[in-house]
Amino acid sequence: MPGPPPAWHPRVDPAPLLPDAEPHRVLGTDAALQLDAALLKRLYVQLVRGRRYNTQATALTRQGRLAVYPSSTGQEACQVAAALALQERDWLFPSYRDTLAAVARGLDPVEALTLLRGDWHTGYDPRACRIAPLCTPLATQLPHAVGLAHAARLRGDDVVALALVGDGGTSEGDFHEALNFAAVWQAPVVFLVQNNGFAISVPLAKQTAAPSLAHKAVGYGMPGRLVDGNDAPAVHGVLTEAVRRAREGGGPTLVEAVTYRVDAHTNADDATRYRTADEVEAWRAHDPIALMERELTARGLLTDDFAAATRDGAEEMAADLRERMHQDPALDPDDLFTHVYAERTTQLRQQSDQLRAELAAEAATDEPAQEARP
Ligand SMILES: Cc1ncc(C[n+]2csc(CCOP(=O)(O)OP(=O)(O)O)c2C)c(N)n1
Ligand SMILES: [Mg+2]
C-alpha cells in the first residue's frame, strides 16, 4: 500500500547539524601550533584586561558605586572571542553578564556600566557602536538580533548579528522563537550560549534533559557546535567560522560554549548555598587565562616585557574606571521621563510635573537649613 503523501517537504541536511560529542578544543592540541602568534597575544591581552575589569567592577559594588554587577570571571574567553569574531559593521546583542564583550568590542568601560549603575538609560548609543542594550529580561535579545539580521539581509546590508545568552535563557520562549525564525529565514545570525553551569542557583541538570544545549539546534534546522568555553582560540575559531557562514548566506548557527561562572551570580548572591568549593576549585584549574599562559609560554611568547605591559595596561584601565566611576554624574531627574515615548503621554507629563514640584518644595525647605550651617 502506498504511504500517505508528504504533508511537508523535509529539507535534506546539506551538512551534519549535530554537534560533536566532545567540546572542540585547540589549546594543548596539535592545532594550537597553527595558531597565529599575533592572534594569541591579542586574545591574551583582552583576557587579562577582562579579568581586571571584572574584579574592579565587583569592587565598585562594594563601594556603593554600582548597584549590581554580574561578573563574568571564568567566562572571559567567551566574552573576548565574541567581540573579536565580529567585524565593525556587525552587531552584538549582549545580556546583563556580557559587559566585557561590549568593552572588548571597544565600548567605553564606564558607558558599559551605566545601566548597572542605575543612573541613565543604556549609557551608550547602540547604533553608534553596534551593540544593543545589555538585556536583563532573559533571551529577549535573541528575537531582536534575528529581526535586525533579517532586516539587514532584506536591505542588502552586509551585517551579521551575534547574540549571547545563558544556559538558563535557553528555556525561554524567546529562545525558541528566535531560533525558529532565524532558521526559517536563514538569517545571518549566530547564537552563543554561554553554558556556565547555573541559572542563579539552578544547575543545568534541572534546566534541560537535552544531551547538550548545542543539540537544540537540530530541531530548528541549523548546525549546533559545542566548544570549550575556556579555550579562547577555540571559541574564537568556532565563532569566526559561524560568522563567515552567516555572512555568506549559509544561515544561523547555535554555538554552546561550556564554561563556568566562578563568581556568584551577582554581588547580591551567595553561591556557597548551592555549590561546593571543590567544584569551583576544579574549574579554577581550567582557567581561561592559565590555559593561554601555558600555550604562550610553550611558544616562547610570554616574555617578561609582554607580561608586564599586559598587566600594566589592565591596571591603567582599572584605575581610569575607578576614578571615573567615583565621580558623581550630573543627573537631571526629569530624564526619568525622557526617551520613554516619542511624545510624552498625559500620565508621564503629570508625573514629571509632580516630581518637579516635589523637588522644588524640597529645595525650598533645604535652603534655610543649609544657610544656617557654619
Ligand atoms: C524573563 C526573565 N525571567 C527571570 C529573570 C530572573 N533571572 C535573572 S538572571 C536569571 C538566571 C539566568 O541564568 P542564565 O541564562 O544561565 O544566565 P547567567 O546568569 O548564568 O549568565 C534569572 C532567572 C529574568 N531576568 N528574566
Ligand atoms: Mg548560566
TrEMBL record:
<dbReference type="InterPro" id="IPR029061">
    <property type="entry name" value="THDP-binding"/>
</dbReference>
<feature type="region of interest" description="Disordered">
    <location>
        <begin position="351"/>
        <end position="374"/>
    </location>
</feature>
<protein>
    <submittedName>
        <fullName>Pyruvate dehydrogenase (Acetyl-transferring) E1 component subunit alpha</fullName>
    </submittedName>
</protein>
<keyword id="KW-0560">Oxidoreductase</keyword>
<dbReference type="GO" id="GO:0009083">
    <property type="term" value="P:branched-chain amino acid catabolic process"/>
</dbReference>
<keyword id="KW-0670">Pyruvate</keyword>
<dbReference type="InterPro" id="IPR017596">
    <property type="entry name" value="PdhA/BkdA"/>
</dbReference>
<dbReference type="InterPro" id="IPR050771">
    <property type="entry name" value="Alpha-ketoacid_DH_E1_comp"/>
</dbReference>
<feature type="domain" description="Dehydrogenase E1 component">
    <location>
        <begin position="56"/>
        <end position="330"/>
    </location>
</feature>
<feature type="compositionally biased region" description="Acidic residues">
    <location>
        <begin position="364"/>
        <end position="374"/>
    </location>
</feature>
<keyword id="KW-0786">Thiamine pyrophosphate</keyword>
<dbReference type="GO" id="GO:0016624">
    <property type="term" value="F:oxidoreductase activity, acting on the aldehyde or oxo group of donors, disulfide as acceptor"/>
</dbReference>
<dbReference type="Pfam" id="PF00676">
    <property type="entry name" value="E1_dh"/>
</dbReference>
<dbReference type="InterPro" id="IPR001017">
    <property type="entry name" value="DH_E1"/>
</dbReference>
<dbReference type="GO" id="GO:0000287">
    <property type="term" value="F:magnesium ion binding"/>
</dbReference>
